[in-house]
Amino acid sequence: MFMILLLIEIVDEISNSEASHIFQGQQEKKIRDSSNTSHPGSNTTVPTGISSSSRLGLTTSSRFSASSPGSSSPDPNSSTTNTPPGTSSVMRSDGQTQPTMSGMAAGSVISIEEEAKLVYGVIYSLRNFVRKLSSNQDEFISYKTSTYRLHYYETPTGLKFVMNSDANTESLRAVLKQIHVQLYVEFVVKNGLMKFEDTRWEISQGFIPTEQQQQQDGSTNGAAVSTTKSGPPPPPGNISNELFRIAVDRFIRSLPVFE
Amino acid sequence: MIYSLYIVNKAGGLVYQKDFTNNLEKLSSNEYLVLAGTFHGVHAITSKISPVHNSSGVEMLEADNFKLYCFQTLTGTKFLLITSTQQNNVDPYMKKIYDIYSDFVMKNPFHTPEMPIRSEQFDQSLLKFIKTINGP
């Protein structure tokens, strides 16, 4: 049984030393699962355990909750309901702390925000570890455990691309570089309406109203942000750019290693 | 080609460190301690952030100029082997190093467990073994 699990997080180092993830999309597919029709605009949670569940492709509001015991409520980002995320809570101990849970990371009992912070910490430490050992010219490429492999690519501007795959995939660094050059630069950097000053999760969720918020979301669809929460909350992070999400989804599914 | 060996105890402290070539930077002993502790922590976290249940920690780390293999024993001791990038399978080497370790360190009644290793015989037989891999 060959399972590929992909999680893409793009982490911006500049904003703060914690992981303020800008974009997160999660795709998981099992080779024997045939029910792969994707319903745009809705996202169904499969109630069974991780090993027998399958995830649909990216939808307009693509945040997937893993089917863990905590998230038995309907998917928070279903565009048909107005309910706020079932498990979200905002921690405001300092201005930079991100909300604890608004969806669970696949395969674990920690939330996606926690996982993002841990991943960033691991990446940061390993990057410095590698640089220390071989005099500043080396870059950490990937690491492998018994069950998964994490691939890493850092752009010269400090943007970090991370992808998880199954353990016997070869290095996907070239793929990450392609994603950066062909997709991120094209759809995000060259988009004149994207704003990058403050990528805190709370802003994209509408917890902190900003003046340009409506104007910023003019370029997106289905991710309306309003402080009254009349629409579905947008996906976490601030790359609420549907073209980018869809393009990344299509690109990854077309890879030969993705089955 | 094996560049160096680190042995980390189960608390994360560096117990043994040896370079076998000159390819890697020479760091101060303090920096080696910090690196060992960092890796110990990262190893623990990587099993937590696994997308799949029940993952081990980092077993192999790949960089541009070297590869790092980690073998964790059942008692929590970690053997880190830094090799060249072409080295693909270090399992027999790991096993042999573990054998040498258990012979000259564990069976030494005067060795305090989890403490830095100060054993001439361990150094010598390790060097002899590495020489057979790296070549003269």
From TrEMBL, chain A:
Residues 25-102, 208-240 are annotated as: Disordered. Pfam families: Sybindin. SUPFAM superfamilies: SNARE-like. Residues 51-89 have a biased composition (Low complexity). Keywords: Endoplasmic reticulum, ER-Golgi transport, Golgi apparatus, Signal, Transport. GO terms for cellular component: endoplasmic reticulum; Golgi apparatus; TRAPP complex. GO terms for biological process: endoplasmic reticulum to Golgi vesicle-mediated transport. Residues 34-50, 90-101, 210-230 have a biased composition (Polar residues). It is found in: Endoplasmic reticulum; Golgi apparatus, cis-Golgi network. Residues 1-19 form the signal peptide. PANTHER family: TRAFFICKING PROTEIN PARTICLE COMPLEX SUBUNIT (PTHR23249), TRAFFICKING PROTEIN PARTICLE COMPLEX SUBUNIT 1 (PTHR23249:SF16). Part of the multisubunit transport protein particle (TRAPP) complex. Belongs to the TRAPP small subunits family. BET5 subfamily. This is Trafficking protein particle complex subunit.
UniProtKB/TrEMBL annotation, chain B:
CDD domains: TRAPPC4_synbindin. PANTHER family: TRAFFICKING PROTEIN PARTICLE COMPLEX SUBUNIT, TRAFFICKING PROTEIN PARTICLE COMPLEX SUBUNIT 4. The lineage of its organism: Eukaryota, Fungi, Fungi incertae sedis, Mucoromycota, Mucoromycotina. It is found in: Endoplasmic reticulum; Golgi apparatus, cis-Golgi network; Golgi apparatus. Transmembrane segments: none annotated. GO terms for biological process: endoplasmic reticulum to Golgi vesicle-mediated transport. The keyword Metal-binding does not apply. Part of the multisubunit transport protein particle (TRAPP) complex. Belongs to the TRAPP small subunits family. TRAPPC4 subfamily. GO terms for cellular component: endoplasmic reticulum; Golgi apparatus; TRAPP complex. It comes from the Eukaryota. Keywords: Endoplasmic reticulum, ER-Golgi transport, Golgi apparatus, Transport. This is Trafficking protein particle complex subunit. Its main location: endoplasmic reticulum. Coiled coil: none annotated.
